[in-house]
Amino acid sequence: MTKLTIVAFDGTRFELDVDNGSTVMENAVRNSVPGIDAECGGACACATCHVYVDDEWTEKVGPPAPMEEDMLDFAFEVRPTSRLSCQIKMKADFDGLIVNIPERQA
């Protein structure tokens, strides 16, 4: 199991043990984390699972792919650390990953 921390906009921390190969979005939905709407179900066809990757993890997680970058154009308050949580697949290298949920989704 890999550790994932999702921080809701109100500061509530959800510390999860997750399976490698699952996405941050899947784990947020599975654990009823507020603020991840995931309207497209992980198809990278909306921006309702937008998160901010913690600064210390940004380089390791990497930048969004072109298709994800296009979808981020529709997200609320995009920052350099913005990603769609449906596009971040957990793996052993991401053990301890921290992401923050924005105030609202697009």
Give structural notes.
- The protein has helices at 24-30, 58-61, 66-72, and strands spanning 2-7, 13-18, 50-53, 82-84, 97-100.
- The chain is of the alpha+beta class.
- The protein has a single domain, classed as Beta-grasp domain (Ubiquitin-like (UB roll)), CATH 3.10.20.
- A five-stranded mixed sheet has the order 2-1-5-3-4.
- The radius of gyration is 12 Å and the shape is globular.
- 28% of the residues are buried.
- The model has no long low-confidence stretch (mean pLDDT 97).
Strand order across the largest sheet: 2-1-5-3-4
Question: Over all CA atoms, what is the radius of gyration?
Answer: 12 Å
The strand count comes to 5
CATH architecture term: Roll
Detail the poorly predicted runs: none
Under CATH, the topology can be stated as Ubiquitin-like (UB roll)
- Could you say which structural class the secondary elements and strand pairing correspond to? alpha+beta
Number of helices: 3
CATH class: Alpha Beta
Shape: globular
Report how far apart the termini are: 31 Å
CATH homologous superfamily classification: Beta-grasp domain
Question: What is the secondary structure topology, with strand pairs?
Answer:
Elements: E1 2-7, E2 13-18, H1 24-30, E3 50-53, H2 58-61, H3 66-72, E4 82-84, E5 97-100
Parallel strand pairs: 1-5
Antiparallel strand pairs: 1-2, 3-4, 3-5
Descriptive key words:
2Fe-2S; iron-sulfur; 3 helices; five-stranded mixed beta sheet; alpha+beta; Adrenodoxin_Fe-S_BS; 5 strands; 106 residues; Ubiquitin-like (UB roll)
